Amino acid sequence: VQLQASGGGLVQAGGSLRLSCAASGRTFNFYHMGWFRQAPGKEREFVAAINWSGDTTLYADSVKGRFSISRDNAKTTAYMQMNRLEPEDTAVYYCAAKRALRSDYEYWGQGTLVTVSS
Question: Please, what is the Cα angle at 81 between 84 and 114, to 5 degrees?
């Protein structure tokens, strides 16, 4: 599966953005999806994940209550709604996909930059 992330941009602290991850292929609903981010000078970190059916989600503590991951299998797209953004959320955001719940992510998008100004 090929992944294309979009929706990043510049936003003021307290603002919102919605990221999208469009997947190619007709087997999107076989994949569990995740969002990761990498801030300048830092390692990539987990942000959120959603299972293939969309009924189970998981969040990093740093974004819990502010970010919401979702998916539309008919549109083969995953989303991440980001509210109450903070300067610390500034990073390149990547979407990823995997087939097995307990495996590593196999496929990665190219990343989309989110910049939050104070």
Answer: 70
Rounded to a whole number, what is the distance in angstroms from the first to the last CA of the chain? 37
Per DSSP bridges, beta strands 9-12 and 17-23 are unpaired
| Tens digit of each residue's pLDDT (9 = 90 or more) over 44-94 | 999 999 999 999 999 999 999 999 999 999 999 999 999 999 999 999 999
User: Which 8-state DSSP code applies to residue 75?
Assistant: G
Q: How confident is the model at residue 25 (pLDDT cuts 50, 70, 90)?
A: confident
Pair 93, 47: CB distance under 8 Å: yes
Residue whose C-alpha is closest to residue 82's, from 40, 39, 35:
35
CA distance 27 to 87: 36
